[in-house]
Amino acid sequence: MNVIIVGIGFMGTGLARRLCKQGFNVVAVDQDQRSLDGLGDDFIGRRVRGVGFDRDILIEAGIERTDAVVSCMGSDEANIVVAHVARSTFRVPRVIARLHDLSKADTYRRLNIQTISPNAWGIARTAELLTYRHLDDVYEVGSGDVHLVRADVPALLDGTTVRELTAIGEVQIVSVSRDNATFIPTQGTELHDGDIVYAAVATSASRKFKQMLGIAE
Fold first, then answer.
1. CA 164/CA 71 separation, integer angstroms
2. Which of 14, 24, 40, 153 is disulfide-compatible with 19, CB 3.0–4.6 A?
3. What value does the CA radius of gyration of the chain take, rounded to a whole number of Å?
4. How high is the pLDDT of residue 134?
5. Torsions phi, psi for 31 (to 5 deg)
6. Among the listed residues 48, 49, 45, the one whose alpha carbon sits nearest the alpha carbon of residue 21
7. DSSP helix/strand/coil, 177
8. How far is 173 from 148, CA to CA, in rounded Å?
């Protein structure tokens, strides 16, 4: 997959390095040579110096044959120009723009541009951490017969497998968060003290799930 990343600041640098390691063909675009140099000697993608919303620079970066463009410069206005040009002029299939000012989200939506906001994510994550208890309902599914539940893995269950916290038709572990990463486990995945599990739990099995976790009523 060919990806152009416009704006090699903190976010752009991290994204470019990560995508390269995952096997993507990455082109990094920034007008500051120092930012491009900051990608390091082990960065195997291309580097293009220039203003990210300049049409000629985007062509040099290969926008006419790219699969995705991510614009993560420090200016919302610059990001929206890059995203709009990529979408409307070059018909890039996937366009993502970083959004700093949440009040501008409607503008991006009207242009059919996907946005990502570290600020919005940070607000939501902080609120989640502040309000989180040992066992929380996250989402009620459909008629309310099933809930998505978030729970701590207590020290007592360190080394327990997902299979041991599964009750067919009643409790199913759907994801595990560990060390700031979330993944879909297998039945044999071992859980560790401090993990957070997300489980689909039938309303009728809520007490059973609490008992599995050793949570007192």
1. 44
2. 24
3. 22
4. 62
5. -85, -10
6. 45
7. strand
8. 9
24, exposed or middle or buried, with CB in 10 Å at 0-12, 13-18, 19+?
Answer: middle
Residue 98 in 3-state DSSP? strand
Whether the CB-CB separation of 49 and 31 falls below 8 Å is answered with yes
Express each pLDDT in 164-204 by its tens digit. Answer: 999 999 999 999 998 878 999 999 999 998 888 999 999 89
Which amino acid belongs to residue 160?
Answer: T
Residues 124-135: what's their mean pLDDT? 56
Tokens 């930012």, residue located: 35
Question: pTM score > 0.70 for this model?
Answer: no
Q: What tokens appear for 25 in the block?
A: 């063909």
- Looking up tokens 């463009």 gives 69
Residues near 104 by beta carbon (within 8 Å), at least 6 away in sequence: 76, 80
Q: How far apart are CA 28 and CA 10, in angstroms?
A: 13
DSSP annotation of 161 reads: B
Residue for token digits 């957070």? 196
Rounded to whole angstroms, how far apart are CA atoms 198 and 176? 6
